[in-house]
């Protein structure tokens, strides 16, 4: 008879689209203690799921909830996925990656419900920010962006190697004027989080309304007069499994796509690749496990997906 599942150390790693959550989790996996068994629950905005395959490629037990925020529909998808992960994997640590356009406040509220007391041991919620986003007032006008910061215990400026001095100064000013004094701030490049942060305590009370500073609330109300709320559309496409993409043509096509986020797992003439793009940042890495050729694009602009296959010049 198996022992009851108790006190599974749990972290939520959140942040807006393209801030580097997936890369950060992959780095944590590379450096995890060999004697610890981890599991990952990942929520993706698209309907086909890409991040889950990337995590599975590392050997970590993974479940993914594609197609929007996992806390919607009465948070049933999230509860079912957690239950399956815990029963099948019996992990010592559970890492949850919400969608970049999800609602982390509701996720944490679910994790602190009575049914999880003694089952999950919720530790620090880590929020990643790309300081370059702060130059676009629409982000501070986004309730999701505000919620992600408000529920976090540790606020991390990622991609600082790509930031100017002014952008880093803007991040520091933002943190010291807008955020809670209880929050910890960190700065990293390439998503290299300090593993010690995972065991920091979670202090935010998710059962109370999200609190933001008076300054941020004022800025949000002001900016909404001039900026529309960011509305994202997700475009997903699968290709035949025997399709092979020309690498150079693929890179040329990616450079033309105007999107906040692009992820893909594709067979190419240079092997099976995981392609991860956020704005002008493009990361390409080989992957061993292949299930299907697929692309997911998240954009606040309209995209014509009817000619994707032609432009990508798929070969079979």
Structure description:
It contains 10 helices and 12 strands. 41% of the residues are buried. The protein is 28% helix and 25% strand. The strands form 2 sheets. The protein has a 7-stranded parallel sheet with strand order 3-2-4-1-5-6-7, with helices on both faces. The protein has a 5-stranded antiparallel sheet with strand order 8-12-9-10-11, with no helix packed on it. The radius of gyration is 20 Å and the shape is globular. It is of the alpha/beta class. The longest helix has 14 residues, at 76-89.
Task: List strands and helices in order, with pairings.
Elements: E1 8-15, H1 21-30, E2 38-43, H2 51-56, E3 61-65, H3 76-89, E4 93-97, H4 104-111, E5 120-129, H5 137-140, H6 143-150, E6 154-157, H7 165-178, E7 184-187, H8 214-223, E8 233-239, H9 247-256, E9 261-268, E10 271-278, E11 281-286, E12 293-299, H10 308-312
Parallel strand pairs: 1-4, 1-5, 2-3, 2-4, 5-6, 6-7
Antiparallel strand pairs: 8-12, 9-10, 9-12, 10-11
Can you give keywords for this protein?
316 residues; alpha/beta; seven-stranded parallel sheet; 12 strands; 25% strand; globular
């Amino acid at each position: 008879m198996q022992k009851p599942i108790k006190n599974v150390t749990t972290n939520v790693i959140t942040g807006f689209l393209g801030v580097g959550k997936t890369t950060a989790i992959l780095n944590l996996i590379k450096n995890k203690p060999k004697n610890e068994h981890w599991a990952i629950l990942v929520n993706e905005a698209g309907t086909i799921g890409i991040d889950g395959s990337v995590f599975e490629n590392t050997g970590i037990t993974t479940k993914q909830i594609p197609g929007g925020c996992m806390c919607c529909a009465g948070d049933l998808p999230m509860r079912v996925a957690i239950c399956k992960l815990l029963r099948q994997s019996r992990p010592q640590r559970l890492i949850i990656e919400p969608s970049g356009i999800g609602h982390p406040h509701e996720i944490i509220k679910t994790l602190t419900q009575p049914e999880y007391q003694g089952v999950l041991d919720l530790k620090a919620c880590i929020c990643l920010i790309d300081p370059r986003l702060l130059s676009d007032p629409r982000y501070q006008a986004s309730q999701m962006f505000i919620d992600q910061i408000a529920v976090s215990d540790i606020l991390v400026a990622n991609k600082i190697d790509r930031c100017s001095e002014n952008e880093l100064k803007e991040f520091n000013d933002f943190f010291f004027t807008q955020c809670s004094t209880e929050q910890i701030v960190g700065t990293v490049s390439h998503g290299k989080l300090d593993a010690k942060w995972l065991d920091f305590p979670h202090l935010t009370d998710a059962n109370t309304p999200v609190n933001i500073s008076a300054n941020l609330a004022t800025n949000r109300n002001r900016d909404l007069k001039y900026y529309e709320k960011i509305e994202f559309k997700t475009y997903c496409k699968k290709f035949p499994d025997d399709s092979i993409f020309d690498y150079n043509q693929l890179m040329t096509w990616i450079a033309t796509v105007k999107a906040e986020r692009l992820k893909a797992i594709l067979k190419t003439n240079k092997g099976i690749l995981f392609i991860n793009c956020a704005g002008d940042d493009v990361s390409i890495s080989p992957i061993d496990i292949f299930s299907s050729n697929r692309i997911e694009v998240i954009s606040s602009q309209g995209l014509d997906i009817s000619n994707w296959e032609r432009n990508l010049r798929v070969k079979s």
